[in-house]
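User: Here's a chain of 423 residues. Predict its fold as tokens.
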Amino acid sequence: MKPKLARILVLLILLLALISGWLLMMIPDDNAEAIAALERGDKKEAFTLYKTAAQKGDRLAQTELGIMYNRGTGTLKNQKEAFKWLSKAAEGGQGRAQYYLAHMYSNGYGTGRDPHKALFWYQKAADKGIEAAYLPLGLLHLTGNGPEGDVEIDSAGLNGQVTLELSGELSSQALLPEINPPEINQGEIIQGETSPMGGQNTSLSVTDDSPLVPVTTDPQAAFPWLKKAAELGRPEAEYLLGQLYQKGEGLPKKNTPEENIEQALLWYERAARSTHVDAQHALAQLFDERGTDQENQSNAFRWYQQAANQGHPRAQYRLGTFYRDGRGTLPNDWQAATWFSNAAGRGHLEAQFALGELYQGQNELGPDYTKAYMWFGIATLNGHEEALERKNVVSRHLQPEARAAAEKLIADWQESSKKAGGN
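Assistant: Prediction complete.
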């Protein structure tokens, strides 16, 4: 190595060491000790230290304390306390807290569900560079409601936020951004607490009984957030973006239908390769509808198969038709019956009717009029318009004893379906 290059390398290493040391020095003592406690596995001590720092107004500690309450880490799980501390930190400009708070509003964790407040805080988090907020923003604009279920964002993109939060700079009142959160019902305010922004704390403690009003749907507002999330490789965003292109909704510019379908195929395939089952089915449908040539049908077969293997009923039914008709693969009545049965067992009406047809026909499986009668009977009970007529046709081929046996099969199937559904 050349001497000059070696000197530059040494200087860079020293500079990085100085920056790291400066960041550690900027972490408030209680937080640094809490981090050390977590590293040695002492969660209770970490909780106590974060609580001490949080009560002094430290925004990072308030965020971590809220997360610990939400997870039940080092303490009993308490979502109302989680909501209270995350609210304080979010008002103080902590991006991660803003994201978690939005998710609590979206799900009604520790507070009443409120998609409008969820939208507000997801937007704040996104403005802070929290990439995990992009998909929820897209969902809220697209469907009027945010994501449901638990959430983790520790590895989900804190761009530009880590340095500020670790340095403790956001604990300074002078650096707090001006935030105007949506108005909170005064009857929901926790009494006796003081907000770090001044005045009473706007933490909700009870669920509002008023009707839930979803966010007004706007595909055009959803598109840029879904695009950002999709470009980060989020499968759900890739799938939803594919839907927008397929429908031609919310797009920033007018494309030809062919261009939109090409984009839909691209985004569906990205999601499908991440095993997103709805994207696999949507991709198969697009290839299926695109043409009867061998290439399109083979691609449709492949993606129907992928989705069917994950238990997608419509994909299982379509895969059955491909095996029955020899599309994209060789004809195989046994495979067709297998996939029709899988879909029929999940309540797919057309698959139930298709099984009746398969057992009625002259093929590797039949005719087997008892099974044909059974499946036409099940399809009839579930509302298929043609099934009763076909059941009556098949009935002419059965002796009374065989017909009674088929009726018992129908009753047994109904009973097992009720048990499986928990009815």
